[in-house]
Amino acid sequence: MPEALDHPQAPMAAADPRPRPPLHSLLERQLRRHLEPGQARPAGFDALLAAVSEAYQQADQDRKMLERALDISSEELLEANGELNRSLSLLQEASSERERAAAAVRESELRFRALVDQAADAIFVHDLGDGRLVDVNQRACDSLGYSRTDLLARSVPDFVVDVDTERARAFWSSLRLGRPETMLAQHRRKDGTTFPIEARLGLIEYAGSTVVLALCRDISAAEAALRESEAKYRDLFDYAPVGYHELDAEGRITSVNRTELTMLGFEAAELLGSYVWELAGDEASRERLRIDRTRTAPRSPYAAELRRKDGSVLSVLIEESVLSDSDGTVQGTRATLRDATASHVLEAQLRQAGKMEAVGRLAGGVAHDFNNLLTAILGYSELALREVGPAGALRRELEEIHKAGVRAGSLTAQLLAFSRQQLLQPHILDLNEVVADMERMLRRVIGEDIELRTASAIGLDPVRADRGQLEQVVLNLAVNARDAMPEGGSLVLETAAVVIGNSGAGRPAGSYAILAVADNGCGMDDEVKSHIFEPFYTTKELGHGTGLGLATVYGIVRQSGGWIEVDSTVGRGTTFRIFLPTVDAETTDVVDEATPGPVGAGSGTVLVVEDDPAVRRLACAVLASTGYQVLEASGPDEARELARGFAGPIDLLLTDVVMPGGGGSRLAQDLGRLRPATRTLFVSGYSDGELSRRGELLPGIELLQKPFGPDELRRKVQQILNSPPLAARLSGEAA
Asked: What span, in angstroms and rounded, lies between the C-alpha atoms of 433 and 338?
């Protein structure tokens, strides 16, 4: 069969003028191989060949078109390939950038969530309409005690309590207009407890919707701190050491502290709203309080009298300042009140002390001048008594003159005691012993209708004082107590020890012995008590007291380094407390117990310098009668002339201290340079304490206190002449 296809005589179909494609020829040859020679072609074979030929031709055309389409240069192909690669690279980069951006967004969202969750404030995001929560942070969950899932299932009304409806409506209306708002509210925890919060709210866009962002802060600690601060302020306000009030512009009291209420005796409700001038205790104070309180000018402190609720009057010092608002508009006045009673008392005490000091100086000056007169009176009366003899015609009169002089000397001694200018001889004393020794004498003085009791402190340290003067103090106080108990009573003398520290209310710090003298007599009011230590002040009838008893007590105690305090109530009695500084119990004292012997005849030359003629003549007469050669001068200048012109030795300079023309101290120095062997004896109506204060005494020079008698003068002169000269004593002490 196949071979028949290749037979040359086989009948063929009509020739096709179109060129046969290779596929067509291949099909025809394969067919001939399977036909017997001369065998006719199968039916439809030609149609098949035509269809195949047509398909082949169409494929050939498509091939050619494809070849033409692909017929481009290698350079263009490479360029196109490069462009394609670049496009692919850009596409990859864009894809990576999108991936990085997405990662950055995810990371930012995580950071934001972490920041939100770690925020100190609770953050709530909720719907503007029904308050449904759409987001919260961890702080919000912790503050309310819910898990995040549980809390997001709730709405705002579930945990916000105690909100005023009207206020909330106005609040939300304002918020919807886009204005951020702040409000205070209470949050309720899951366990039912509540706590105060401060919420700051505003509108934001969240997930395509407008919602409310609420930042809520727990202010429990702040409110507690505020309450504590307010309590501290209230305590400071109420218990300040001064009164304080505030007034409105009309002068009405709007605030007042507890101190002022205590000062005036009112309750706050009784003062608030009242005009401040209604408290005035007098018309002058009322005018001071009724001022224009819209003025901005500062006002100086002023004194006023305010009436307490009980009707008594309180003296105060008021300091005011203006209360203004932020615009500077005057709203009223703030004022502090200080109780001026204590300062008035201190001022009165200061005036009293000044008066006492002035009177003391006057008394000292009077006593000095009087001592000159008494020196002459006592001296001449004593000389006259010696001249007339025991049976003389004028003996009695002279004795009365001498007695009067002695009494006058006692008065001057009391004046000097008050002025703290008397000459004291302090020794170490046991105060208990002094009181015990005086007990018998005091019983005689106060009488049998007054009970005397003593109470002595055990182990009381000694004091340094003049025993005679201290006894005078006790005696004067006892007599004063007796006169306060005309119908009898009780007098108690008690000793005690006290140590006063640095905060001793104006008392000097140290250890003191106290001598208290207390009676249950008539007592004194404040007016009498303010004058009792003044000389010549007395409440007794004329002729029943000099008014110097308590003045003497005051002076002796002050000169002894102590002070005296008085407590007295009318109808209940009086207590005087004397404070004396103590000394070491082991301190010893040297006391000269020698009694003066008779004065023998004198020898040597004495220069007498005295500006008072009576005293000078008396001294010259006494010394001349004793055997001394006497040079007489009325002042320092005359004494210098005598000393320069006198050829012989001058053994003693007897000079007044306070004199016109330079005084005795300067004269003694000048004469000491001119005549080193000359001894010096000062005489004065002033005490050595006053002279030392004036700077008139020289170290080592003795002082003879006026008034003195003839024998006292002779004895003192003889004592000085028997001692080494001052220059020799000073050089010996230096060696």
From this structure: 48
- Asked if residue 395 lies in contact with residue 389, where contact means CB atoms within 8 angstroms, the answer is yes
The angle at the Cα of 450, spanning 445 to 455, to the nearest 5 degrees, equals 90
The contacts of residue 19 (CB under 8 Å, 6+ apart) are none
* Tokens coding 565: 């305090």
C-alpha–C-alpha distance, residues 631 and 132, integer Å: 126
Nearby residues of 403 by Cβ (< 8 Å), 6 or more positions away: none
d(Cα 596, Cα 592) in Å, to the nearest integer?
Answer: 11
Asked, as a colleague might, if the bond just before 707 is cis with ω within 30 of 0, I would say yes
Q: Which residues of 479-511 are buried (b: 16+ CB within 10 A; e: fewer)?
A: ebbbbbbeeebebbbbbeeeeeeeeeeeeeeee
Here the tokens at position 424 are: 């004291």
d(CA 623, CA 600): 12
* More confident site: 33 or 319: 319
Q: What is the pLDDT of residue 296?
A: 66
Backbone angles phi, psi at 140, to 5 degrees: -65, -40
Structure tokens at 356: 């006492």
Give CA–CA dist 115/110, Å, rounded. 9
Six-digit token string for 235: 């305590």
* Number of neighbouring beta carbons within 10 Å of residue 663: 19
Banded pLDDT at 150 (limits 50, 70, 90): very high
3-state secondary structure 458-497: CCCCCEEECHHHHHHHHHHHHHHHHHHCCCCEEEEEEEEE
Q: What pLDDT band is residue 548 in, cutting at 50, 70 and 90?
A: low
**Residue 553 pLDDT class (50, 70, 90 cuts):** confident
- Tell me if residue 389 falls in helix, strand or coil: coil
How far apart are alpha carbons 637 and 663 in whole angstroms? Answer: 10
What does the alpha-carbon distance between residue 541 and residue 133 come to, in Å, rounded to a whole number? 101
